[in-house]
Amino acid sequence: MEHLEDHERMDVWKTIEDALFNDQIDQFRAEFLDLHPYDQAKIFEEVEDDVRLQIYTYLSPEEVADVMEHIDYDEIEPFFTEMDPRFAAQVFAEMSTDDAVDILNELDKNKVASFLTIMDDDSAEEIKDLLHYEEKTAGSIMTTEFVVVKAGMTIREAMLHLRKEAPDAETIYYTYVIDEDKRLVGVISLRDLIISEEDWVISDVMSERVVSVSVGEDQEEIARMMRDYDFLALPVVDFQNHLLGIITVDDIMDVMEEEASDDYSKLAAISDVDGPDDRAFTSAKKRLPWLVILLFLGSLTASLIGRFEETLDQVAILAIFIPLIAGMAGNTGTQALAVAVRGIATGETYKQGKSKIVFREAGTGLITGISCGILIFLIVFIWQNNLYLGLLVGLSIMITLIVATLAGALVPLVMHRFNIDPAVASGPFITTINDLISILIYFGLATAFMSLLL
Amino acid sequence: MEHLEDHERMDVWKTIEDALFNDQIDQFRAEFLDLHPYDQAKIFEEVEDDVRLQIYTYLSPEEVADVMEHIDYDEIEPFFTEMDPRFAAQVFAEMSTDDAVDILNELDKNKVASFLTIMDDDSAEEIKDLLHYEEKTAGSIMTTEFVVVKAGMTIREAMLHLRKEAPDAETIYYTYVIDEDKRLVGVISLRDLIISEEDWVISDVMSERVVSVSVGEDQEEIARMMRDYDFLALPVVDFQNHLLGIITVDDIMDVMEEEASDDYSKLAAISDVDGPDDRAFTSAKKRLPWLVILLFLGSLTASLIGRFEETLDQVAILAIFIPLIAGMAGNTGTQALAVAVRGIATGETYKQGKSKIVFREAGTGLITGISCGILIFLIVFIWQNNLYLGLLVGLSIMITLIVATLAGALVPLVMHRFNIDPAVASGPFITTINDLISILIYFGLATAFMSLLL
């Protein structure tokens, strides 16, 4: 079957819901559980509350756990609140620990504590361990449901062990090999397991070059490694190389999406471009803080121009080119900023070295500045038939582009140096800073050469 | 072993290169092939040309193919040009067909034709088939190295078949089930295979609800499905449901990175934020076209203000607020644009309906417009002690924010309607358009109420 389009999904649901309303438990279960958990989750989001309450009574905690893992974490709270707390605790216990932890992090502390109290001790312990890790680190996205074997086992023993563990493990496509002290010593893929002879020993077949990440590693760096090395899972270790958990590729795809969306949001000066944005009010709430900050920065620009009021009074035509010059400063600054932010994100910056980047941006600013400067000189000279005005605007654009390009590149580099996320220096922020700089250059030059313009 | 940091990699290489220079083939092969192909590729990019030529002679085409699959496709051409053409053709034949096709698409047509002529017929045929698919569709990113079994096989027969095919297949973690006409009828994961009894029949164990994509499907949509459904691979079918290929998760991670970087680049008005950007000249080449377009648009703004020269002459203080008003229009437009572009990319737009989005944006513009309008009215009124000037600037900001928010949302929606990639309406582009609108509103109001301002 094809995957379900949004409109198909509710049509499919219409064929299933009769069974629910007529109390035909077996038929409902057969039809509903035949759907992919992602589609089950989308149906959960669409139906009325009382329908959902009835569905819970028809499914096991394990089956509900599968559904919950596919609901947006931003929107999941009401689902767990409407369930019977005992049932909800069982659902958490059945989920992958990494998903359970992600969701519990969205709920309020009291609720989390009460769920953990009701839950069976083993599951509660595993979840509590993971709740301690800092957000966006390996520890916070890893799961503890992995399969390990001892280096001395035969392939036959390992396969038997794997078959037993398969239903609960997050992935069985990599099996990690540990020594007596639970230190990670090797890895073997299921591919290698099934093509090996049954009486071979693991230590002869495993790869000893296990790529692992430390538990405090940043999730963006892990995503980069997984993409570069084409792994389906990565083991997470502590500083003594003890195996703590694994990170699987499906979680990394979510990380990639989250990080990309995050950078994009910041470039557009908005707290979060995605997420539930149904009402104008929620959406205004995400944008207003930025707009207000930018309004105050804009007032600074206005007061700066105010200082040149005398110049403006004498040569009113100067005002015509303010948006052009400020706009070009903003545009070139945003370009340089985007390159620098991506360079830091992809690690290119370390490879090339910061001074090299600053030199390159200075060169880029010089080339674009001279080109645009000459172009606008010609436009203004021909249009206004005024040589000195043309020279003033051309020279201003040239200097502005050089300075603004450097500023766009330097601001994120400096922020990164002081451990501030460089993506916070959003497009509109750098644009407004560059507005200020460009106005200063333009009116400074105009005031200095006033006699030529009159 | 930990994965290799950039500086470690060349240290490791130093311990290996002696073997190469002393012609100790076996030792060199043992040490070099023990590295992950990604690290091998990075070493290839760093060493001198003559060192690489020697390495080729020590490795088999299959081993070189592994390395080539991990080199950036933008930078791969020189490697294939320096190899002996016969050897290069063998390397292509040994690569995954999807990677071979991606690389061949980067080379010039004549070279591609000559490689295909030298190559063995089977491989050439497979590659030629894939070269026809349009870029960024399922066909262009799928590989034809997949494992299929017949529905009537037993688990034992299937496992035997799998063991035989494993070395060449792109993934063996999903096995696809086809009928007599090669139509896709089911899928079975390796996980299910190994926990099944050996004498069970595939058709009893397989899942008949195979999620598949059609060969012309857009790669961004495929990435979304893979993320939502947590798949490691997806089968690609034609309109008669014949299995044509598979797409694996490692390729999808590259697609996600590419699409994210693409949207980000366009928001910053730059042709490509990533890629080899070592020299100021290359980097200026990517930015200048946008800057020149924006320079001409900016000249339009200038000529628009020029039409209000009389107003400006009478009330020079008006000029002070030009960058503030134009800047706010640009900022709010970029926010609305980013939300709309992401909404289209993630499919949220279809779900919510376009008219709902337009209404929401109008509401958002109203809320932000009124808030910022009142705020700036107070600032200007207190600062300049001029009620009418405060009202003028406040009212202008209010109307501007409403119109600019709507424009930011509408432009990508309209572009999408006409099948133009909405991300092309980059941040600076919408910013410049909104500059024009805001100037018109501001000076329009100022001219109309001139008598109050004097």
From TrEMBL, chains A, B:
* NCBIfam families, per database record: mgtE
- How does it associate, per the subunit comment? Homodimer.
The organism's lineage is: Bacteria, Bacillati, Bacillota, Bacilli, Bacillales
Q: Which SMART domains match?
A: CBS, MgtE_N
> Which coarse location class applies to the principal site listed for this UniProt protein?
membrane
Keywords of this entry: CBS domain, Cell membrane, Magnesium, Membrane, Metal-binding, Transmembrane, Transmembrane helix, Transport
**What cellular component GO annotations does this protein have?**
plasma membrane
| GO terms of molecular function | magnesium ion transmembrane transporter activity; metal ion binding
The way it spans or sits in the membrane comes to: Multi-pass membrane protein
**Superkingdom:** Bacteria
Describe the location of the CBS domain by residue ranges: 142-205, 206-264
What is the protein named? Answer: Magnesium transporter MgtE
- Which compartments does it reside in? Cell membrane; Membrane
Q: Which family does it belong to?
A: Belongs to the SLC41A transporter family.
